[in-house]
Amino acid sequence: MPLMMSEEGFENDESDYQTLPRARVSHRQRGLGWFLLGGWKVLCGSCCDCLARVCRRRKELKARTVWLGCPEKCEEKYPKNGIKNQKYNIFTFVPGVLYQQFKFFLNLYFLVVACSQFVPSLKIGYLYTYWAPLGFVLTVTMVREAVDEMRRYRRDKEMNSQLYSKLTVRGQIPVKSSDIQVGDMIIVEKNQRIPADMIFLRTSEKNGSCFIRTDQLDGETDWKLKVAVCCTQRLPAVGDLFSISAYVYAQKPQLDIHSFEGNFTREDADPQIHESLSIENTLWASTVVASGTVIGVVIYTGKETRSVLNTSSAKNKVGLLDLELNRLTKALFLAQVVLSVVMVAVQGFVGPWFRNLFRFVVLFSYIIPISLRVNLDMGKSAYGWMIMKDENIPGTVVRTSTIPEELGRLVYLLTDKTGTLTQNEMVFKRLHLGTVSYGTDTMDEIQSHIAQSYAAQPPSQPSNGSTSGTTPARKTQSSGPKVRKSVRSRIHEAVKAIALCHNVTPVYESHAAVNGETESAEADQDFSDDNRTYQASSPDEVELVRWTQSVGLTLVNRDLASLQLRTPSGQIISFHILQIFPFTSESKRMGIIVREESTGDITFYMKGADVAMASIVQYNDWLEEECGNMAREGLRTLVVAKKSLSEEQYQDFENRYSQAKLSLHDRGLKVAAVVESLEREMELLCLTGVEDQLQADVRPTLELLRNAGIKIWMLTGDKLETATCIAKSSHLVSRTQDIHVFKPISSRGEAHLELNAFRRKHDCALVISGDSLEVCLRYYEHEFVELACQCPAVVCCRCSPTQKAQIVTLLKQHTANRTCAIGDGGNDVSMIQAADCGIGIEGKVGTQASLAADFSITQFKHIGRLLMVHGRNSYKRSAALGQFVMHRGMIISTMQAVFSSVFYFASVPLYQGFLMVGYATMYTMFPVFSLVLDEDVKPEMALLYPELYKDLTKGRSLSFKTFLIWVLISIYQGGSLMYGALVLFESEFVHVVAISFTALIITELLMVALTIRTWHWLMVVAEFFSLGCYLASLAFLNEYFGIGRVSLGAFLDLSFITTWPFLWKVSAITLVSCLPLYIIKYLKRKFSPPSYSKLSS
């Protein structure tokens, strides 16, 4: 559906769009005609759907009231808190594995053929020739699945057996993670995983807050600050939690990890205490406590926790090559049936023709060789082994050995940002004051300016006080003298603003928490620099505070109401925190109002993105230009500004702000309006530039992938500005390319207008937020995906784990191209499992992604070699191997057809028992399997010319065209071998089997040599070993060389095969079957060589 170019459509109610088609359907006449013409299908389908829904019915998720420490008071039965990643249980294992095998036409076909041999009238040859290969394939598959399943079971058991302390009336008792229930009060120690979703009641930290690590939930490595419920934190002792009667009302379980709504109510207080709960009072499962010990009450368990709701269940992945081979197998089966019908038809459908038809089907069953599955599975294992042994990509692990060819067919690569493209390590690079700029090599100048400015001032800082004490009215008038401020005072103000305007908390490992009273006495001990680490929800902020420490102004202490800075001379300056306005993706800025203790000055500091700050700061002529310069360098920029407030101004603001916070309607808008009244004519202090260091060789790797025709999408939970910065610095978006930032949208109309605006842009990268993406997909899914797929690069920011998986699924559905997802955190698992090929990086944030992935690598740069070299080889080799094994089956079936037609269309096998088994194994298996060592291009060449990869994605190595070529070759060779044997050996007719079989084996060995593009010494060994095996077996297998029931006991005459006539006639037949193909190959390479051969020559 093309986008409507007018607005008229939006006037209808949205529900009209859905009801129109249904309304039309319901008015149709549903009579007998309808039922016979397909109505029965509709009825059967709806019955099946209804049954499936009843069987799979999931319990509806509901809001709940949870009483503290009283699981027995819960009205509902909630799920167990166990983790379960297994695919099967003890009862479903065998049926499940068999279903996975026999849902493929290939395997089902072999099963039917093998079972038919139990019927005496259909029996052809020996049972073991059919059952042995099938049994081997199934045994190998079952053993492999059983090993994988055991590993999953052990991992789950380890997680479920972790012990926690549960708080009861009788004290603390140990409880297993899997036995935790809704309503339990659980104690979680520092560095311990949170076992279930909880509300944060108490902490050992005296400020009533703690930090948690969320890397396994949202992929971000920075710590998040969580605040305990005031009512329970204020209780004198932990035991008092049982002396109060309180409950938590929690909303129903949801996917969104960034929001929560609930209430805490204490009933036994007079009046009742009500406290609203938000996301900062929650502790989600799979996060880790980073500071202190916490006590929480469990509200969601097991399948209802945020982490499990955001994880999709693992699916069995099937490679595109396997699906293509499955289609070709069906075509072969059709050919086999047609050939059998022709044979019976030529006979004239006489006698028990139906039985003869089935016998012919079994006779020609070698058209589809069972060794195809065995060879391909062994080949896949060989490729996996080669990948893991490659010294150029050390530490690479292949966890799913069934899809290595997928690495050679990828069109879309969806990558995480934090920890995948970047190291998530910030480095302060630039400070710009408007007239002067400082880089990493001139930081010592800033340090000396700061030291001098604090040495020149007594602790009370009167010079700073005199400027900050002035009223804003005078401040705006004195904008002239502002220019005459010395560089030193401007640096001092800028560094002080950066040191104060943030959400960073210094954390001390030991002494401060132990003995709170003697903090002032132990100041030196507590504030030792070695013992301090900074924590915040943004790594940028931590780096800015670390930088102020490096130039002399150190943040030494902070709680919810105050913070302290230490000057270069060692003095402590204290500030009261009056208000904090946290960063939001809408406002793109954060602010803080502080009062300096020594002078009583009130200052409003603010920092934020240049787009948000440009309209807030006083007029200047340098900000926009410098922001652009820093962004081009790939730096993340922040604009810092300040405003001095008088006591009256602040009191007026506080009254309005408190009132706005209490309003019930449009609270957010009213609060924002009050804060905006302060954000006017602020004094611009400085512009900072911070670099997020990229992983090693990210730029050349992304360029390599782009040249290979792979489209790269970056899906991140990070902010829009940060994501755009990294996209530029990593060269995901080239410098010359435009970037279209999709505006925030919330309705169908807005989505329509924005998509039309985007449609008019050409060859530009797209940046879109998760919320806008959701709206687009709700109304214009097809149009959005169509437009996005035309972009050279796409960046989706603020993506939840579920959204990442949803984007992967969308690309698979709409483009039918192969997708690959790469990530390093627990939040990337859904995306990795949804993609056709999942790659996990073992990073700082744990091994969850690498364990869930199909391939695990240690660095992002290894993906280049993994795709260009191993992906190419795996796909090319498997395609050659698959087609050659089919050729091996088709050539012998052609010979059987010729033989049967000569012998009055009798359904008699040409080759008996062990000859057939030997043909598929001993005599030809090693040379054919040695194709897994073949390579058309040297690894260095594949990496030097990534453009070669584009050919692979078109799937030309295995298509109906190449398959038909092999069919024609098989028919020609089979016909010439059989007719040659019959024509040349008219007098010695009883030797036809020996002669034709010998020529067949030699032809197969020569055909392998013809197919090989790069020789390996093992290939030569395999050729001669197979020939040796055949010649040696002639002496032992002579009883098999009679022609079944026709020649009745005609055996091989050993003296005859050593005569010259035998040798030259076999050579002549072989030459006729192979020489034309060699000539054609030579001419093709001479006049129409493939692109890769031009390079290698």
Helix and strand topology:
Elements: H1 14-26, H2 32-56, E1 64-67, H3 93-102, H4 105-116, H5 128-160, E2 163-168, E3 171-176, E4 185-188, E5 197-203, E6 209-213, H6 215-218, E7 223-227, H7 230-233, E8 246-250, E9 262-266, E10 273-277, E11 282-283, E12 288-289, E13 294-300, H8 306-309, H9 320-347, H10 353-363, H11 371-389, E14 397-398, E15 410-415, E16 422-432, E17 437-438, H12 443-456, H13 462-468, H14 472-477, H15 487-500, E18 505-508, H16 511-514, H17 523-526, E19 532-535, H18 539-550, E20 554-558, E21 562-566, E22 572-581, E23 589-596, E24 602-608, H19 610-613, H20 623-632, E25 636-645, H21 647-662, H22 667-678, E26 683-694, H23 698-707, E27 711-715, H24 720-729, E28 738-741, H25 748-759, E29 764-769, H26 770-789, E30 793-797, H27 801-815, E31 818-823, H28 829-834, E32 837-841, H29 848-852, E33 855-857, H30 862-902, H31 913-920, H32 925-929, H33 939-944, H34 949-953, H35 960-984, H36 992-1011, H37 1017-1036, H38 1044-1047, H39 1054-1057, H40 1060-1087, H41 1091-1096
Parallel strand pairs: 15-27, 15-31, 27-30, 28-29, 29-30, 31-32, 32-33
Antiparallel strand pairs: 1-8, 2-3, 2-4, 4-13, 5-11, 5-13, 6-7, 6-12, 8-9, 9-10, 14-33, 16-17, 16-26, 18-19, 20-21, 21-22, 22-23, 23-24, 24-25, 25-26
Helix pairs in contact: 3-5, 9-10, 9-30, 11-30, 12-15, 15-18, 21-22, 25-26, 26-27, 30-35, 30-36, 35-36, 35-40, 36-37, 36-40
